[in-house]
UniProtKB/TrEMBL annotation:
<dbReference type="Pfam" id="PF08448">
    <property type="entry name" value="PAS_4"/>
</dbReference>
<dbReference type="InterPro" id="IPR052163">
    <property type="entry name" value="DGC-Regulatory_Protein"/>
</dbReference>
<dbReference type="InterPro" id="IPR035965">
    <property type="entry name" value="PAS-like_dom_sf"/>
</dbReference>
<dbReference type="InterPro" id="IPR000160">
    <property type="entry name" value="GGDEF_dom"/>
</dbReference>
<feature type="domain" description="GGDEF">
    <location>
        <begin position="292"/>
        <end position="425"/>
    </location>
</feature>
<protein>
    <submittedName>
        <fullName>PAS domain S-box-containing protein/diguanylate cyclase (GGDEF) domain-containing protein</fullName>
    </submittedName>
</protein>
<dbReference type="InterPro" id="IPR043128">
    <property type="entry name" value="Rev_trsase/Diguanyl_cyclase"/>
</dbReference>
<feature type="domain" description="PAS">
    <location>
        <begin position="136"/>
        <end position="206"/>
    </location>
</feature>
<dbReference type="InterPro" id="IPR000014">
    <property type="entry name" value="PAS"/>
</dbReference>
<feature type="domain" description="PAS">
    <location>
        <begin position="13"/>
        <end position="79"/>
    </location>
</feature>
<feature type="domain" description="PAC">
    <location>
        <begin position="83"/>
        <end position="135"/>
    </location>
</feature>
<dbReference type="InterPro" id="IPR000700">
    <property type="entry name" value="PAS-assoc_C"/>
</dbReference>
<dbReference type="GO" id="GO:0003824">
    <property type="term" value="F:catalytic activity"/>
</dbReference>
<dbReference type="Pfam" id="PF00990">
    <property type="entry name" value="GGDEF"/>
</dbReference>
<dbReference type="InterPro" id="IPR029787">
    <property type="entry name" value="Nucleotide_cyclase"/>
</dbReference>
<dbReference type="InterPro" id="IPR013656">
    <property type="entry name" value="PAS_4"/>
</dbReference>
Amino acid sequence: MTDQALLDEVLGLRTILENVGAYIYTKDLDGRYTYVNSLVCQLFGRTLAEIVGQTDEAFFDLHLSDELRRNDRFVLESGQTITREEHNVVRETGDTRIYWTVKTPVRNAQGVIVGMCGISTDITERKALERALAEQKQLLDTVLNNADANIYMKSLDRRFLYVNSQCASLLARPVEEITGKRDIELLPAEVADHFWEMDRKAFETHARQAGEESYTAPDGRTLHYWSIKVPLDHLGYPDRLIGFSSEITELYQLKEELRRQANTDALTSTSSRRHFIEQALHQVEQARRYQQPLSLLALDLDHFKRVNDRYGHAGGDAVLVAVAGFFRRTVRTADLIGRLGGEEFAILLPNTDAAAAYALAGRLCSGLSELDITLPGPQLHHQKTSIGVATLGEHDTGFEALLARADRALYAAKHAGRNRVRRAD
Ligand SMILES: Nc1nc2c(ncn2[C@@H]2O[C@H](COP(=O)(O)OP(=O)(O)OP(=O)(O)O)[C@@H](O)[C@H]2O)c(=O)[nH]1
């Protein structure tokens, strides 16, 4: 190698040492600096000439932290290279800095240790950031694991990427066994597919979805959830979503019970007037769309006032219950029985033409008159009813019109002497 080439190489190496972004230094066996790069000069606030020949005593507060001296001694005595974190207190500023340090012995041609060389990277800020991140993660974990909801992150390929502890206990496995697994590996296929429905919608629309979900647990209990699924597009993860599912089973059951109560007549367990009309409007629509016959019976019990007079109001109630039971046993399950008023009932007959409806009305009328109703006493009562029959026709503007025709037929049955059936025009 020529002198020029050698010089070029040395200059090249020096450029690297000066620009590497780490503290680089060599020391002799007594711990005196023999070389430092310019970053070390900046740290100590001295020139190279002022530093060379000095020990660390001049630049670091070794009473506060002597990790540096212990590490140097270890390298020089053991001849081993060490790679570790080092905490040093800089005399010039009083700051404690954390370094990621590599220290290695320097040997002469005979292999005898004559000093050491070190490269230290300041990781103080990185460590502070790591600590802040760890604290934030701890805080987040505390929130997530104590929130009264199943919280999870799922991917587009149906994998659980995160679950909180409540979600893990629902899936009856430890968190580590859940993360990375697909929903169909953890849940029965139909349950996984049910949950996936809302997930898929969130991924497809790239928008937050909210709604009810249900899950039948292995012990047979059906649990209901209010779920919110938030796609993470805004965080740069279009293939992930976060889900929050809060159990609302009690609320759901309460709501169902309220709905049932609103739809049912408390005394006779037939449909309430409101629910009957709601269903009837729907049936009229269906019948028109599919061109199927639809008939309606309007029933009014005969001389019911006398029943109350004879047996008292409670006796009248017992008769109403017995009559409703008879109607239920006599009609098909697809037919809908409603109590429209005191002793007025209506029966909606889907897919039933005028002839079949008339025949059924006849069976109801005669069957009821023959029914033995035993009242406390015991007293035997026979209840009779008048019935009007109407079948949905082209001229009916809607259910109201059909009901009005059935009512007119009922009135005609009453007028003709009761305990009979009359057809609408
Ligand atoms: N026990 C009982 N009676 C009721 C109930 N709702 C209505 N009623 C009674 O039913 C009777 C209906 O009487 P009306 O409308 O005069 O008719 P009716 O005596 O049945 O005579 P017709 O309908 O003409 O055959 C009244 O006495 C009401 O008090 C109820 O929920 N329970």
